[in-house]
């Protein structure tokens, strides 16, 4: 079936959906919309949360793939098979919802295609009524004898303006490094400090020792007692560092029985990668040469993650001492990457800083703003690629259901 283009009377294209975000959430929303021949524009500023990670895990079929190659594959699939999806590199700086009169079939030259797709028959008059963010219903309403509908508008940093019937947000979150408390943290992030023991750590299994750093999302005895055993699965011994907090160490100790878990309450002055990248590359070359000399081309598990590994982190304490760990687990606090957009739309926030979705909504529609759907890290505390894909798929299902119902109401299905 041919894809249809609708234009606003001002001449710009009216998309069925504007998708802000080109990570797993945004791309998976695009896939769902493409399967129902709805048009969407994916606006992507190219700032992906897992940019630091060289490999991605817990995505079956893409084990150990690079996150970039994963996103590339989805984009390629979309480009090759689904003409209704377009991409644009752009940073969205403003979003608004506004009410516009609907120009009904035959009343304007709104359609630029000869296809029989129903939504081509509606066009939107130019200079649509401006309105602030509103949670008014999206279905066409009659106002003063004229039919109206709610639309969304995105403006990018260059001043380009895009219009869509629905808005889909997959703008993700940003990790907030505790540089003041732990100088050097940002440098080690994703290289030797890992937030998730499913995403990282397996490659370091067999490490002599690993560290768990209290702080950020891992600041309570419950969270520390949850994460520490996962770290222990990958290292012979584990030390929990509480950076001067004796009480936290004592409360966490009560929750864990293992004799192989130690607690260290020394104040941390800074952290650093034990082997900065250039040093590590030299080390790798030496290891490769040794392997060739052995002749079997294999490396052993036992070697993985020792304190000489590329992931090793050194903790320098205020008392002048230091300790080096094969890797360190810590999950920093997170904040909405597009916090201005989220606030500007008036989206409601949950306890973990996630955008709240409407209870009982099958399609992850945002609480309080009809027609705005959200997916991925920005809308859940369970942040992972698989979750972003799942949410994106069902957000698309929600948008499709809403748009189909609107078309049906106007007998335009
Ligand atoms: C170091 C690290 C390693 C990880 N490893 C794994 C792993 O192995 N397995 C796993 O399942 N998960 C992993 N994760 C988690 C994973 O990265 C996220 O759960 C996933 O990326 C969420 O997808 P998303 O689409 O919601 O957000 P993101 O991937 O962060 O994408 C957000 C998108 O929104 C765009 N955007 C934001 N604001 C704007 C704007 N104003 N205008 C235009 N575009 C905008 C960005 O450019 C980007 O395209 C890791 C995370 C980190 C930090």
UniProtKB/TrEMBL annotation:
UniProt xrefs under InterPro entries: FAD/NAD-bd_sf (IPR036188), FAD/NAD-binding_dom (IPR023753), Ferredoxin-NADP_redctase_2 (IPR050097)
An example Gene Ontology biological process: cellular response to toxic substance
Keyword Cytoplasm belongs to the record: no
Protein's name in the database: FAD/NAD(P)-binding domain-containing protein
Domain FAD/NAD(P)-binding: 15-392
Source organism: Purpureocillium takamizusanense
Keywords linked to the UniProt accession: Flavoprotein, Oxidoreductase
Protein family membership: Belongs to the class-II pyridine nucleotide-disulfide oxidoreductase family.
Pfam families associated with the record: Pyr_redox_2
Gene3D superfamilies: FAD/NAD(P)-binding domain
Region feature (Disordered): 105-147, 274-306
């Amino acid at each position: 079936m041919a894809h249809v283009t609708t234009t606003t009377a001002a001449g710009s294209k009216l998309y069925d959906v504007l998708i802000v975000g080109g990570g797993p959430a945004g791309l998976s929303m695009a896939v769902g919309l493409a399967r129902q021949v709805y048009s969407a524009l994916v606006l992507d500023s190219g700032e992906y949360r897992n940019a630091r990670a060289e490999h991605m895990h817990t995505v079956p079929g893409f084990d150990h793939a690079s996150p970039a190659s994963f996103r590339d594959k989805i984009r390629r699939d979309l480009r090759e098979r689904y003409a209704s999806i377009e991409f644009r590199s752009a940073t969205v700086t403003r979003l608004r919802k506004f009410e516009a009169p609907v120009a009904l079939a035959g009343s304007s030259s709104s359609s630029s295609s000869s296809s029989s797709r129903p939504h081509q028959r509606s066009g939107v008059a130019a200079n649509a009524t401006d309105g602030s963010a509103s949670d008014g219903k999206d279905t066409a309403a009659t106002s003063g004898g004229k039919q109206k509908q709610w639309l969304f508008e995105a403006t990018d940093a260059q001043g380009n303006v895009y219009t869509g019937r629905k808005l889909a947000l997959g703008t993700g979150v940003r990790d907030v490094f505790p540089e003041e408390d732990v100088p050097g943290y940002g440098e080690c992030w994703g290289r030797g400090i890992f937030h998730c023991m499913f995403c990282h750590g397996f490659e370091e299994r067999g490490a002599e020792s690993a560290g768990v750093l209290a702080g950020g999302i891992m600041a309570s005895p419950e969270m520390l007692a949850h994460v520490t055993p996962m770290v222990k699965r990958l290292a012979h011994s584990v030390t929990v560092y509480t950076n001067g907090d004796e009480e936290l160490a004592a409360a966490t100790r009560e929750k864990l029985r293992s004799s192989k878990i130690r607690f260290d309450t020394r104040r941390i002055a800074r952290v650093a990668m034990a082997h900065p990248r250039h040093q590590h590359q030299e080390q790798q070359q030496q290891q490769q040469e040794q392997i060739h000399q052995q002749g079997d081309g294999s490396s052993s598990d036992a070697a993985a993650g020792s304190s000489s590994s590329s992931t090793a982190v050194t903790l320098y304490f205020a008392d002048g001492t230091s300790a080096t760990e094969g890797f360190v687990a810590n999950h920093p606090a997170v904040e909405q990457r597009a916090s201005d957009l989220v606030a500007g739309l008036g989206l409601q926030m949950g306890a973990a800083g996630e955008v709240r979705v409407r209870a009982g909504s099958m399609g992850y529609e945002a609480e309080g703003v009809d027609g705005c759907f959200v997916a991925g890290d920005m809308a859940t505390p369970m942040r992972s690629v698989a979750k972003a894909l799942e949410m994106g798929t069902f957000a698309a299902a929600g948008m499709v259901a809403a748009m189909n119902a609107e078309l049906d109401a106007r007998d335009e299905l």
